[in-house]
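Protocol step 4 of 5: obtain the predicted structure for the target chain.
Materials: sequence only (see below). No template structures provided, no constraints applied. The aim of this step is simply to have a reference model before the mutagenesis design in step 5. Sequence pasted as it appears in the construct record:
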Amino acid sequence: MIENPQAMAIIRSVIGLGHGLGVPVVAEGVETQAQLDALRAEGCDQVQGYFIARPNPIAYFEGVVIGRSAAVPQLSKAVPIRRRA
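Step 4 output (structure tokens):
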């Protein structure tokens, strides 16, 4: 991603479009610190992916619904990477 100028141009465009429309931008599939740093530098609002957390088993969600969330792993989620003004 970061080594490819065309990919970075698309990323900048999508982030700009989202911000222009007033919606937060979430990047999915972040797998490295370098990707996270590049997205942060471009103004991306949130990220998710293996670098942040691995997917959780269905037992986690069953625990949340039943109220046993303390006994299961922490939920993988989109992580804010910058504050919006």
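Step 4 remarks: The chain has a mean pLDDT of 81. The two ends are 27 Å apart (CA to CA).
Proceed to step 5.
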